[in-house]
Design a protein that fits this description.
Keywords: Membrane, Transmembrane, Transmembrane helix. It comes from Mucilaginibacter limnophilus. InterPro entries: DUF4134 (IPR025408). This is DUF4134 domain-containing protein. It is built from two helices and no strands. The chain is rod-shaped. Helix 1 (about 10-55) runs antiparallel to helix 2 (about 60-85). The relative contact order is 0.12. Helices cover about 80% and strands about 0% of the residues. The chain has a domain at about 25-85. The mean pLDDT is about 80. The longest helix has about 40 residues, at about 10-55. It has about 90 residues and is mostly helical.
Length: about 90
Amino acid sequence: MIVFIILVQPGLSEMAQVRSDLSRSFFSAVSCAYILAAIFGILSALRIYHNWQMGRERITSDVAAWFYASLFMVLAGTFIRFLYGL
């Protein structure tokens, strides 16, 4: 009969606790970032609408800039989530 002795590395439970704390605070930070992105999106839409109604002809650069900024905020959160494995 073979007896296996399982040795658990020290600090394993502490690392699990840190991972749990990190995931809890990370998801609240991601939710906050999404809320800020939504608020900035609404404000930028109002700003672009105002410029359009005031007769500004070239608003395509503003539209593209705000669109890519919001796309960056969404993709950055997803990238960080995959980077840390959360």
